[in-house]
Amino acid sequence: MATSSSSNPAGGPSPQYLKVKTHLREGIASGRWRPGERLPSEAELTETFGVSRMTVNRALRELHQEGMVERVQGVGSFVAELHRIASTLTVRDVHEEIAARGHRHEAKVHVLESLRASAEQAAQFGLRAGATLFHSIIVHRENGVAIQCEDRLVNAACAPAYMAQDFEQVTPTHYLLEVAPLSEARYTIEAEMPNALEARLLGMPRGEPCLVVKRATSSHGRIVTAVRLVHPGSRWILEGSFQA
User: Fold this and answer.
1) Most buried in the list 60, 106, 207, 230, measured by CB within 10 Å?
2) What's the pLDDT tens digit per position in 86-133?
3) Is the CATH number 3.40.50.2300 carried by domain 86-238?
């Protein structure tokens, strides 16, 4: 019989439905059940956990409401496809966003280099031409699906140890927010076609549009980084809320 060590806030045993929910959530996050795959049936879960059908139904219903599970009447429950993944208009670590959905984040570094700023790049950062910049290209995956190609330039004077980081373990956003606390961010958001490299790294056809976020962030009056974040249009949405 499956078990869980989760407990409720009061320190007592977890509600039975939460044990089922946690078991399924952890299985999805670990890749045991991949997007589109069928989950164990309600009858199977009832027998495995020794609980009522109603208890299992509640666990599946909550996972469905959270966007992790699709339920098909008379057929069963399936791991939701990663075709509409939300990101809010804040500077957030993509690893944290993915983890908050109970999913698995992976990063692959394709470029990590030092270069001399061109005249255009120098103007963008408010530096002299030839100043040192760091450049990285990293692809982020959610449960094995490529959802973001991150092409980033960094002011070496603001983050001198950038090249020494393992960005397959710690994201550039996480590192930069620690060494150069954010004071300002500027965005542009556009629909564009990916270039040849982006299309190849994201595993998508050149003709599929992308949602491209271009962002520059500053700390204490200095531009720290400029990044181009490319998301396949079929796998990502941007959403946010504003309050007066």
Assistant:
1) 230
2) 444 566 788 888 888 888 999 999 999 999 999 999 999 999 999 999
3) no
